[in-house]
Amino acid sequence: MTATQDTGTREVGTARRRKEDAHLITGQTTWTDNIQLAGTVHAALLRSPMAHARIRVDVSAARNEPGVVAAYSGADLADELAGLPSAWQVTPDWVAPEHKPLATDEVRYAGDAVAVVVADTRAHAVDALDAIEVDYEPLPVVLDMERAMADDSPLVHSDAGTNVCFRYSDTFGDVAGAFADAPLHITRRYVQQRLVPCAMEPRSVVVAPVPAAGEYTVWSSTQIPHFVRLFLALLTGVSESRIRVIAPDVGGGFGSKLDIYAEELLTFTLARKLGRPVKWTETRSEAFQATIHGRDQIQDLDLACDADGRIRGLRVNLLADMGAYLQLLTPAIPLLGRAMFPGIYKMDAYEFGCVGVFTDKTPTDAYRGAGRPEATFAIERLLDELAAELHVDPLEIRRRNWIRHEEFPYDQIAGLTYDSGNYEAATARATELFDYAGLRAEQARRREAHDPVQLGIGVSTYTEMCGLAPSRWLGDRGYAGGGWEAASVRLLPTGKVEAVVGTSPHGQGHVTTFSQIVADTLGVPFDDVEVVHGDTAAAPAGLDTYGSRSLAVGGVAVWRAAQRVRDKAKTLAAHLLEVSEDDLDFDGGSFAVRGTPGATKTIQEVAFAAFAAHSIPEGFEPTLSADFVLEPDDFSFPHGTHLCAVDVDTETGRVTIRRYVAVDDVGKVVNPLIVEGQVHGGLAQGIAQALHEIAVYDEDGNLTTGTMVDYTPPSAADLPSFTTDRTETPSTTNPLGVKGVGEAGTIASTPAVVNAVVDALRPYGVTDVPMPCTPERVWRAIHEAQGGTS
Amino acid sequence: MIPVGFEYSRPSTVEEAVAALAADPDAKVLAGGQSLLPVLRLRLAAPTTLVDLRDVESLHGVRVAGDDLVIGAMTTHDEILHDARVAEHAPLIAAATATVGDRQVRHLGTFGGSLSHADPAGDLPAVACALDATMVAVGPNGRREIPAADFFVDYLTTALAPDEILVEVRVPDTAGWGHRYEKFNRMAQAWSIVGVAALVRRVDGGVTDTRVALTNMGRRPVRATAVERALTGTAGDAGAVTAAAGHADEGAEPPSDVNGAADYRAHLSRVLTRRALTVAVGA
C-alpha cells in the first residue's frame, strides 16, 4: 500500500518548487544571529593557540575592559559546567574522558576554549579577550594515529593511561577459510583525510531566561533541537518543560550541527547566571577549529578473490581519529560504516576491526555520510583495483559480484538485510547516458597517441543505509536513544492543515515534501498545508534530522498521522450524511455517498463540523487532529551507479571533470526537484573530498588550512554540469516505498572520481593517488611511478 | 572577525591623503580593501587609521600620455577589463586582470591597491614587471618614479615609504607584441600557485624581444631573464620555445606551502612558461 493509492497521485511525485525558497532568497530569514532581544549581552571565547598545554588563566583584567559584564575562566565555572555528553558507548570498556565546555587545567587541541567574556556588544567582548592572561606550559603533542598507539607516545589524556578510545571487532563467515588459499589478493591502505564540514551558516546560540519563571528559550543553529533540550535539561538540572529550544532557519549542517556543543551549554549557563539574554555566534575561523571535523581514517584492506575475480572475503582494519575528545557520536561514526564495507557485493566472509584513537586535534563526528562514504570508497576502489589486476572492465567485475535484482531482499554478509534494488537497471541507464563505450574508445586512442592530457573513467556502484534507525538496532549497539519519529496533523476549522513534525530541516525542504504527502492524503491543496518544525514548544516529541532519516521515518509518521485524520473525518462525514462509513468514497478531498449523486461533504466542511461539534457521533472527540509516533521496521538501502570521466593533464597534474553521470535509485520519490538538489549538493561534497579538501595540521598541531582560502571548498565554478537520472525500486521497509537521498551523492562520488583519476594514469604505472587528488599529488604520483624522486 | 578599532579618514586630494598618512605612523591606505579587510578582520594587522582613497578623483581612470598608458591607482580591475585603451595598448594587463579574484572582487579591487599590496601570489606585480612599467608615487617630499623592477622589494613589501601613495602606473606601449598570462591555480578564483606573464615581439618572424615574469616563484615577482635571453634572437619555433622555457626557474626561490612544494612549483614554471610563450610567439 502506498500513499498514491490513497487518493490518486496529485502532489507526490511532482517537482514542486520549494515553499521555503521565497523567504530564503529574498533575505527574509531568521538565522539565530538575527535574533535581537532587548538587553542581550554577547559572549566571546578565548581559544588556545596551542595543541597541548597546561594552562593558568587570569581573566581579572578583562573585567575592567569597556562594556564587559563578566569574564570567566574554565576553572571559575568548573563547578557549574557539566562535562559534554557522548551518547554512543560503542564498547563496554571505551575510554570517554571528561570534556568540559571550558578547559580547566589543560588544553588538548588548538581551539580548545579557555575563557569567556560577556560584554554589551560583540566587539567589546572580542576586544576584551586580549586582556586575559593565559600561561601556557607546553606539553608533548601527538597528531598521528599510529604514533599515538605506540607505547612511548605522549598521551592526550594522561589520566586515561592510553590514547586508545576503543577496540572493536566483528567476524562474519569463515574468514580463515576464505583467505586460506585465495588465488588473488588485493591489499591496500587508503587514507580518508580529515575534512571540515563548512556549513554556510556558522553556529550560533541565543539563550533568553525568564528569571521569575525559571524558564529558558534557546535558539540554536542546530540539526537537533530536541536533543539540545534533552541534554541541557540533563546537564543543568533544569526541567525539560522549562526549556524551549528553537532551531530557526538553519543554514546547513551536514552532520556538524548534529551535536551538543560547549557553546550551547556555556551560553545557557551564562544566561542563567546573569539573568539576561546571552548570544554567542561563531566566527568562520572558530568554525574551522571548534566545530567538529569529519572522516580521518586509515583503512587497511585485504580483498581475497578467486582467479576469475569472484570475491571470497574482505578484511578491514581501521584506525579512526577521535580528535581530542568525544563529541555526541564520535566513536560510533567509523562503526556506522562497519556493515557497509561489503557494499553491493556477495562474499563468503568478512572481518572488521576498528581502533578509535585520541590525538591533539579537533574532535571528529558525523559528516555527511558518517562512516559510510569511507566504507564505500574502500570497496569501490578495491573493485577497480581488482578489475585492473585481472584486465577486466570495472563494470564487468562488479557484475560478477553484485547482488542480482531477483535476490532481494538479500541478507548480506555483515548482517543487514537489503530491502530492494536493481543494480543492473541503474548501471544500464548510467552507461547509456555516459556513452561508456564511446569514452572507452576515446581513452584507447589518447593512450595510443601519448596525449599529455589523458582520459580516465571511474565507476562507483554504491549502496548505503538510510533511515536511521530501528530503536532496537541502536540499543543493541550502545546508543543511548532511539530512532522513532513523531508527527501531528491537525485539520483546522478553516480547512487549512497544520502538520507538526519532529524532524528539523536545515536545507532539506521538509516543508515542501511533507506538504505534498499531507495534501494527497487529505485531498487538500498543497498551499493549504503548513508544516511546523524545529521548535520544541510546537513539536514536543521528535528525534530531528540526520542520517537520511527524515522522509523514510519522519515522512511516514506524517503520512500515518494524516491517515488517522482522514479516517476520523470519514467517521464524522458518515454521521453527517447519515450513512455507513462503508458507503463513502473519498476522492479529491470529498466524501461522497456511493450511488447518491450530490450527497457529499468536503473534508473542509467536515473539519468545521468537527470543530463546532454540534452534531457528532457517540464517542467522537471534537476537532480533527491525530498524532503518530513511528518506529521504523528497518533501514532502507538506496543505491546507484555513478560514472565519472576526467581529463588529467599529466604535465601539471590538474584533474578536470569532463562528464559526470549519476543514476540513483532512492525508491519512490516525493519531489524530484528536491531529490535532484540533494544529489547535486552531495556530489559537490563528495567531489570536494576526492579533489580538493583536506584539513592539514602542522607539526605543532596548528590547523594550517583554517580559512576558506586554504581549505579550498569548491564553488560552482569548480564543478561540472551533472547529468542525473533515476531508477525507481520501492523500499519494502516502509509503506511509502521511500528510501533516502541526503547522503547518496556524497557517498557515491568520491570513489567515482578517484577511480577515474587512477584509471587515467594506469598506463604510467600509477595505482593510487592519495586524497585529495590535487594537481601536486597527481603530478607526484606520476613522477614517482615513472621512477623519479620527489 | 571583528577588526581592532581604528580611525577612518576619507580625503579628497592626494595632498590630504599624504597628510593623513604622515599624521599617523600606524596608518594604512585603504584602496579597494579586498586584501586589507580580511587581514584586519583576522586581526593579523591593526592599523590605527585607515586612509580611504575612494574619493580622490585624480587617482581614478585610464589615459594615454605620449607613448605611455597611464593607469590611475584607484582604477578598478573591472574598469581596466572594459577599457579600450588598455586592450589596445597593454592587452597583457587585461588578460591577467581577467584572472584576478571573482566578479565582486574585480568591481572593488584596484590596480594600484593590488600592486601596493605586493602579494607574491597576486597576478599583477609580475605583469607590471614584464611590461617594465613605472610606478609613480607621491609623498610629503613630492613625486617620484620607481621602475617596477625596483618597486617590489620583498614579501608584501614595496619601495613605497609609509607616507607615500602610489598614484599611477605608466605602461610602455606593447601594442603588436604577442602576450599571454598563463595562470595555474587549484580553485577557480584563487591566487596563482604559479603564474607566467609573457611578452614576445617578432620582426620578420624572428624574436627580437622577450619578456617573462613569474608570479609566486619567490618573495617578489621574478623576471625569467635566462628564458628571455634564450628565446630572443631565435625563430620562435616550438623547439626554441621549449628550450627557452626549460630555464624558467633559474634563479627563482619558490615557496613551499599547502598548494605546492618548491620542486613542484619549479616544474610548473617550466611547463607554464612553455605554454605562455607558445601563445605569445604566435601573435
Short summary of the structure?
Chain A is of the alpha+beta class. Chain B is an alpha+beta fold and 283 residues long. Chain B is 33% helix and 26% strand.
Structure in words:
The complex is a heterodimer of chains A (790) and B (283). Chain A is of the alpha+beta class and 790 residues long. Among the domains of chain A are: 3-28 and 484-630, Aldehyde oxidase/xanthine dehydrogenase, molybdopterin binding domain (Aldehyde Oxidoreductase, domain 4); 392-465 and 635-785, 2-Layer Sandwich (Aldehyde Oxidoreductase, domain 4). Chain A contains 21 helices and 28 strands. In chain A, helix 10 crosses helix 11 (394-401), helix 15 packs parallel to helix 16 and helix 16 packs across helix 17 (603-612). The longest helix of chain A is centred in the C-terminal third of the chain and has 28 residues, at 550-577. The radius of gyration of chain A is 28 Å and the shape is globular. Chain B has 283 residues and is an alpha+beta fold. Chain B folds into three domains: 7-52, Uridine Diphospho-n-acetylenolpyruvylglucosamine Reductase, domain 2; 62-172, Uridine Diphospho-n-acetylenolpyruvylglucosamine Reductase, domain 3 (2-Layer Sandwich); 179-280, Enolase-like, domain 1, CATH 3.30.390. The radius of gyration of chain B is 19 Å and the shape is globular. The relative contact order of chain B is 0.12. Chain A: Keywords: Molybdenum, Oxidoreductase.
